[in-house]
Write a structure and sequence with these properties.
heterodimer; A: 119 residues; mainly beta; Rieske Iron-sulfur Protein; 4-stranded antiparallel β-sheet; 1 helix; globular; B: 408 residues; alpha/beta; FAD/NAD(P)-binding domain; Enolase-like, domain 1; 5-stranded parallel β-sheet; 5-stranded antiparallel β-sheet; 25% helix; binds flavin-adenine dinucleotide
Chain lengths: 119, 408
Amino acid sequence: MSEGIVVGGTEDIEEGTAKVVEPEESGFDEPIAVFRTETGCFFALNDTCTHEEASLADGWIEGEDVECPLHSSMFSLRSGKVKGLPATEDARTHRVEVRDGQVVLFPGTDADPDACPGQ
Amino acid sequence: MASPRRIVVVGGGVAGYSAAAELRARGYDGALGLVDPSGLPYDRPPLSKGYLLGTKDAAGLRLAPEAWYTEHGVELHAARAAALRPAEGAVELDGGRLLAADAVVLATGALPRPLRVPGGDAALTLRTLGDAERLRAALAPGARIAVVGGGLIGAETASGAAVLGAEVTLIEPLDPPLVPAVGEALARRLHAQHAEHGVRVLTAVPERIETGSGGAAHRTYHLTLSDGTAVEADAVVVGIGVVPDTALAAAAGLAVDDGVLVDAAQRTSNPAVFAAGDATRLRRPDGTLARRAEHWEAAVRSGQAAAAGLLGQAPPEFGAPWFWSDRHGVHVESVGSLAGPGEVLVRRTDDGVPTAAFRLAEDGRLLGCAAVDGGLLIKAARRIIDRGTVVDPETLADPGDDLRRRAR
Ligand SMILES: Cc1cc2nc3c(=O)[nH]c(=O)nc-3n(C[C@H](O)[C@H](O)[C@H](O)COP(=O)(O)OP(=O)(O)OC[C@H]3O[C@@H](n4cnc5c(N)ncnc54)[C@H](O)[C@@H]3O)c2cc1C
């Protein structure tokens, strides 16, 4: 899948929050969370925590990490890597681009961990 | 102590595993062994939650996939350590094999506190995967299950048993339990949930347990309680706390007092032995002893601190302690401490249901917060506690306030 979809304008996602894109909208088989950090970057991960049923979009976003709301597993928003137990499996990333104030998500395409879209 | 080159971790619970992972994360490149009779380290909290309910399987409990140990050069020994031999630079395994060790992380955890009444040893306990399997086998629909102890594990077990269709009786002397952990208001709300979910709650303690004469498959138990009530059960489960497993430490002559005594760097009284997790108890610089921490995150943190200590590095700074519990469809969390002096404020929904409790010091600083289904509130409270921010009490009590903004 390489076709990007417009998730909304950059202003539609407040800093330090996330928006969930459902499978019906993305064509990807799982919900995707699109995060906006307080430094203004946009990142996307599979929304469901790899540990147990919980939405990472409801988690605590600090710096470039998100902490699961349920058991506080921590993931890097950039790379999806687990940074804190109890999760042991990395979260899947999806590429995000910001074009003309629009947040564009590429469901199923890995993010470039060096990119900081939106900055 | 010179920088160790051969480290053996004894005990593969979350404390031992965290110590091993942190040693590698901090760049330790010497030999590293991990000894535990159960082999691959697994996580315990799901044993009374998803694993009991059958929504999580044994593979889902692993703290890391098998390949992780090879990739990180951690040699697993599926064996019991029989003795620490720090003077000889070794750990002795059952059967007599010696593992070379110039430093040891002792993380033997805790054992269920036994129910010391006549017949009390007939009861099941819940600490290991094997325990959880035995318990699960007893939880057939309609089976009569007596749960002794309404604290964290007892309440989760009662909840899981009820979901699986068992006929559950919960026997607990306090009404409600857990006040020091979550404050009175939430403790009441949580304890009342048992009855709402069909669990019969008896405020008493068992005085004796008689085992019926049926064969193993049809065994029944007859409990006599302190108030004279008789309870018939097909299985009895006890969750009345834990005792630290200090056997190896004591035999090796380490200082032990209801826990292996450690300092802030997790050092024991023997410079070649560090200890972490539920087995340990902090001795403060002034010689006083802290309460033992018996929660998951404390075990992770102390394992990580032991790794730093072993490498001669400064202990990482950790904030207020935290724990969670899941039962009867709600998620409970607590950070800091609700016990002790100070004012306790309760946040309630519009119809009066308590959702969070806060303990405040006289100068307004937050000392503890507990919440039901309030994960983000707890994360905010944790930061507020750690930073010593003073938040207006009315804000804390306001159910409409998003505490997150105050913690940024
Ligand atoms: C059923 C259950 C549910 C829980 N739920 C929660 C929860 O929801 N939230 C929370 O915060 N905490 C919870 N806890 C507590 C948390 O799991 C413990 O605090 C944590 O497991 C402590 O880790 P540990 O590594 O110190 O000890 P343990 O997990 O007890 O591990 C110790 C290990 O050492 C091994 N060992 C002992 N002696 C030897 C020896 N001689 N040689 C080799 N190995 C040895 C044991 O086999 C064991 O594997 C729960 C605990 C249980 C049992």
